[in-house]
Amino acid sequence: MPGIIAGKLGDPFLIIAAWIAGGLFTFLGANIYAELGTAFPKAGGPYVYVREAAGPFAGFVTGWSDTAISVIATAAQAAAFGLYLENDVLDSRAVAIAELGVLFAVNWFGLKVGARTQQALSLFKVGGLVLLALACLALGGVKPPSDVQLFEHGFGLAGMIAALMLVTETYAGWNSGSISPRRTRIPTATFHALCSGASAR
């Protein structure tokens, strides 16, 4: 995703500005969800908020659309994982199905096992990003050949809009804390999800 965003903007300062704008947008969204979670401390997240604002039918549509998006996103992530590992031996579809099967098995053993697995994977991801950043700082300063095109095109309004959409999609998931049961401290859970998700981007 970062490479696609960089290709659509074509300028390092615009790339950084897009990620900062996406972070600010996410931060504002977390504040809104924290306020809504305090006002309506019930399980359901966006379903509850839309139902209170626009009625039961709108809440029903919101709940089902969120469910559909979660299922589609899970399948898309598995497909992307399969494409990365595809080779002469492994088929991308087989890898994607195997990944979904492993995740299903992990969650089958209970909430604690699933939570610990997620924490371990998140730690592994953050550690990998830190190592990558350190490697870039240590090995940086190498200029690419003059005939290499780093960006698809120059700056344009359509490219900026597309890049911001991709940035906000990358930050997606921070609002999951609002779906927790009412005994959860929803504002705290929302900000914990925001911080942990943003730190991994």
Automatic annotation (TrEMBL):
The keyword Transmembrane helix applies. The keyword Secreted does not apply. InterPro entries: AA/rel_permease1, AminoAcid_Transporter. It is found in: Membrane. This is Amino acid permease. It comes from Sphingomonas sediminicola. It comes from the Bacteria. The chain crosses the membrane at residues 12-34, 94-111, 123-142, 154-174. It is a multi-pass membrane protein. Keywords: Membrane, Transmembrane, Transmembrane helix.
